[in-house]
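ok so for the tutorial part 2 we go from a plain amino acid sequence to predicted structure tokens. step 1 is just haveing the sequence, like this:
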Amino acid sequence: MTAVPPDKRLLLAPKAIRARACVALDAFWPRRRIARCEASGAAILEAILLENELTRVLFGAALGLCLLCVPVQGSSQDIEIFAIRYGSIADFPLRGLLPDAPEGEVIDVTLTVWLVRSGDRVILIDTGFFRPQWFGRFDIRDFVRPDVALSGMGVSPADVTDVVITHAHWDHMGGLELFPAATVWIQEAEFSYYTGTAWQSAGRSGGIDPADVAHLVSRNTSGSLRLIPGDGIEILPGITVFTGARHTFASQYVLVDGAAPFVIASDNAYLYKNIIEGRAGATFERDDRQANLEALRRMVELAGDAGRVIPGHDAEVFRRFPLVADGIVRIYPEHP
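step 2 — the prediction. this is what the tokens look like for a chain of 336 residues:
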């Protein structure tokens, strides 16, 4: 019997084993980003052969160990991303989204949350809102309470294991109490500012609902809040958050790092126009626009393609990606 060269054992390994080995190697040597190519045995083999002997030895060890281990939860094979529309705002001033837009131009915007399934975790990025006072301030149409909107995915509030809050505005954090069983992730600086300084005479609290802040504090005192201490932190397997866009005091955007990485920009990039045309959106202070532009460029670098950066309020998202249920599109994978 002809011996199989050690590097080529990967091609004969089941896909699940390939994924485990790649994730294991990536954990030892994350800068190599080997896990990203686990979907294709040939692609991984090519990557390994281009590396040095130490890389091949490490991969061989990881592959051997993974023949005995249980499946890794949250590998890139498992990740699914969905955008869920829970309403829309008609005739919203475009200048509120693009400060350089012509005066008087309006646009219909979507109200969106994002659902990520990763292994045994159900991760909700932002929570929408439900408090009645906001209906009097905006022309909100086709509203479905966010917890009800998730039912189109067969997901109940109790199923949501984690909530990532990109920023504290009413239409993103206002539905948090609808998901009482979830662990909540928010930037520590965002939490500190909007539970303190924002309400002082020199603070900025526009778009923040005091009731939402009170509930956020209650999640902290109950032990279900996780404060993220800054930029570039992987909070869950395959879920990394980044700061610097300054939509609010310490807004964050989310890299979902599967075989094809996607960035959920939320309001750090309202529209595809922000991303593709390099136009800053609304920022915490006017002087933050340059930081927002730099963050837009970074998002594209992280995703590898501008088309994989998902804006916060663009109806085009629901035309670009395949519809799987009313108001729900599958961002990744396109074909399950």
